[in-house]
Amino acid sequence: MGEYRPPFTITNKMLSYVSSISEKIGRISVIGNLESKPHLRKNNRIKSIHSSLKIEANSLTLGQVRDVINGKAVLGEQKEIQEVKNAYTAYEHLVEINPYDIRHLKKFHGIMTKYLVEESGEFRSGEEGVFNGEQCIFMAPPARFVPQLMNDLFAWMKEARKDIHPLILSSVFHYEFVFIHPFADGNGRMARLWHTAILSKWKQVFEYIPIESRIEKFQDEYYDAIAQCHVAGESTIFVEFMLSQIDKILDDISIQINGENEYLPETVQKLLEVMEYEIPYTGNALMEKLGLKAKEGFRRNYLHPAIEMNLIRMTIPDKPNSRNQRYVRT
To answer: Which molecular-function annotation in GO is an example for this chain (predicted)?
Structure first.
């Protein structure tokens, strides 16, 4: 291996997570191939994009992000709408990424920041810091060192993938990338996209696993892990943090897939098929989507069983008969 080696220690905790994640991925592949569930795949991709942009202070809701992707008009800042379009293009071409090729990194930064950044697709020429809100976590290395640092990181990755598990390798890369902060803007988005790209080369199912949604949920812990690693001068804490989040998101995915499995009554399956995740529907809208006329039959055979199985929740649970009641797929 070359002289450059990012400092980190492979711990028992990491190996335990790698084992757990590998087992869960195997189970997910057996239970239900995500390839055969296009709406689930699309929902997860939308979650990835919404969460990754929300971390960077994009204010569009999940529903608005979905509308932009589906080509609907959305009232919002033009910059934020463009961020969604760019991220969707990048994630749609995920399969084409060679995560070990630095030219691909620049190309996809160009896609991710199109019309938004002057130095789109190029390493930064100015000095940058990493911020969580107003708080500066650390100052990145001077711009003149960036090309060499990035070349070293990619050379290390190419060599290290022979010996280091992709789950660990991708997390080390994520931290080192954030530390180098190679671009003027879009570093967080690119770090998360590249993390997913490395994992997708290992197991394709990662294309549709929204790791970004866990990072967004535990954003303070994410930045805290980065800050601790910066003080420690090595990425062990961050790698353990990322593996724990990936391990947990796979539990969510298993529940998602199981929620669609054969054990569900056919009526409940049909109801779930017409509902997008996290979008509120009226009872009448759902009946219309299902082509049903009888309200009582709809409630008895479709709605109530789905609510009892916690697959759908009411927006006003303490007033089940409220005329403002909406139903959301969980």
So the answer is: ATP binding
Task: Tell me how far the alpha carbon of residue 4 is from its chain's centroid.
Answer: 29
pTM: 0.78
- Count how many residues are written for the chain: 330
Q: CB of 63 within 8 A of CB of 278?
A: yes
CA distance 251 to 238: 21
Average pLDDT over residues 240-251: 95
Task: Quickly state the pLDDT bin for 28 (edges 50, 70, 90).
Answer: confident
Annotated binding-site positions for ATP: 185-192, 222-223
Would residue 1 count as lying in a domain? no
For 176-201, write each residue's pLDDT tens digit.
999 999 999 999 999 999 999 999 99
Return the amino acid letter for 110.
Answer: G
d(CA 129, CA 185): 11
Q: Is 326 left (phi over 0), alpha (psi -120 to 50) or beta?
A: beta
The catalytic position among 50, 174, 181, 230 is: 181
Distance between CA atoms of residues 296 and 324, nearest Å: 18
Average pLDDT, whole number, for the chain?
Answer: 91
Is 114 in the same domain as 249? yes
* Range(s) of the domain holding residue 233: 12-258
Tell me what pLDDT residue 287 has: 96
Q: How many domains are contained in the chain? A: 2
Q: Which pLDDT value is given to residue 55?
A: 94
Confirm whether 50 is a catalytic residue: no
In this structure, are 275 and 140 located in the same domain? no
Is 219 part of any domain? Answer: yes
Q: What is the pLDDT of residues 122-149, one digit of tens each?
A: 999 999 887 777 888 778 999 999 999 9
**Any residues with CB less than 8 A from the CB of 243 and at least 6 apart, and which?**
13, 14, 17, 18, 21, 167, 168, 171
The single-letter code of the amino acid at 76 is G
Residue 5, both tokens: 């080696």
Q: What is the pLDDT of residue 264?
A: 72
81 dihedral zone (left: phi>0; alpha: psi -120 to 50; beta): alpha
